[in-house]
């Protein structure tokens, strides 16, 4: 998904498929399998919509007509034409003695062009009659690829004879011969405007050809295997290639520069990797099967994740395609790659209670690379030790590591380079059906390169009785600020909607002893409670750091429900939602704007405002000691459509490494969306930010979030994933005047204002979720939530 920057979708193909063809509408796919079955897939749902089987013989090549009504496929020496609406065969084109290797439809669907591997000739067919029109002779060996020009007047072919040839379709004569590949040409395609041709080869390269100039423009190098498929982006700015080296690569057409490699694995993991080492992945903890190899140490594979501190970039693919200028990084080759030694030595129960002590042995890192005069010795101390329980950060040394550009502090070691750290008072979860926990630990070197992860499985004592926890629902909505220029309309309503609907659903599940709602708002006519200090005090109480008596009294006066806050335990759920302005600063830092951002009259981003805002570093520090076993955060951040001072302004929180790091460290699900305020709040029908509306009204009230699977239960992760899917669709429905609201038991059509209907959403939500091994938390059950009235109030 190039819009969200990730989200690889796996199709549950039941047969081994050899060939695929995408429908022109981009929403369907045709696959041909070794079991003689052709299947039409609906891509948005990833489900087969139709399937039909041939009596015998494998379909080796397929193509779909421009109107999506028909398909042609090579089956042995014959070509079949199918009506896709009825899944029926219309006719057979006969005349080839060898299997058809490649086939293409003309844009008007009236002709088909085919080739065979053992013969260099191409054959042009009349689709309406199945009759051969003519043959194109010229290749000296088998032809592997063909493509029609967009205007249908010419065609391309690629052959074992290492040439790409351009043909006059009407005359059947060769127009141009492109030579330059060092091995067989496996794939060819035209640019959308027909001016350029692209080819891939057994020689591991792609080549771009100028058709009118009859010359090679450039070569794309980087693959380490045969380039089996090539394509242009619709605007021709980018080239895509698929190779036998297991990667799909994206290139800039005008320079030949590789933007990134895309890799997908059978178990659903994926990674996007840029040549400079930046990467994005849905398995930040341990991306198995993917490693860096440094030229000065070629026999030591380096896992992707050890560079996560500085090189992990959320939504990397989308940001590269948007042309975002990412700050420079040191080359991986230049980093100190010596990894400190980290090993969990033992886990011991403390005094028969529900806490344990965890002993971790540490050692300085040492690495020798190169030989002779090129030999280098890398050494490092131990920095930023972090301890996790079931993927959630529960302790660290130093106790609250900094998230800046340098390590927080070096851990002191003895003369031999060793140290031992004992973490005490680590709570054990006391949930029903939880009988074992996994502790894991790692540290970093002086260049923020991660050590190997040490893991230790601990069986819970049988005398630990299960407990019900508490659910804390903290919702902040900021309509008005000290600086009147930073104002919103519906953020406070977002916060109330989250409180009313989510709290009601959680109560009905019966899973918690108590639900504690905390509502922080700032809006015209009421005392603002959406203040940074109040938000911090709330989190501090959950972290077991009570504020001073004076601060506590002020907090309880402003928020009476805060009296119910206590130190969180592994049985608890913490759900935070924030609807406010957001800003993405340098180096991936993200800022949320509370009420007290400082007085002013202009939307100016300056250091004073950022100091008063709530940053991802603030959140990481405050949440560091919060030990709730299940944590989630919804950020519905808006930014003004007005011009703001400061070069390089970017709306947050999309692309925030800080939010990604927070989600990873705390095992916290973080759903982040950035909306322009005139899009998110000016729809009189919705009266909500798009993300909050999608989650509350459509997701819970209309129960549309019960979708993976549809079983009468809406899980927390399922709900957040629904938000990522629903928001862009909701925007398009608004833009087209087709939205239907469901929350009040009725359907109401709504549109965007006339001046907004031509706009596109600036960002799509992103879900950071690195705790996929944990069971999902039940958010609501069927008939558990009554519809709210507060969504309709201004």
What's the short story on this structure?
It contains eleven helices and 50 strands. It is mainly beta and 794 residues long.
Please give a structural write-up.
By secondary structure, this protein is mainly β. It is built from eleven helices and 50 strands. The strands form 13 sheets. Strands 39, 40, 41, 42, 43, 44, 45 and 49 form an eight-stranded mixed beta sheet that branches. A hairpin with a 5-residue loop joins strand 29 (341-349) and strand 30 (355-363). Helix 3 runs parallel beside helix 10 and helix 10 packs across helix 11 (716-736).
Calculate the terminal CA-CA distance, rounded to whole Å: 36 Å
* Amount of helix: 10-25%
Q: Compute the average pLDDT.
A: 86
Largest beta-sheet details: 8 strands, mixed
Please tell me how large the radius of gyration is: 30 Å
Low-confidence stretches: 640-652, 677-683, 743-762, 785-794
- Please state the overall shape, judged from the principal axes of the Cα atoms: globular
Strand tally: 50
Strand percentage: 35-45%
Helical stretch tally: 11
Structural class: mainly beta
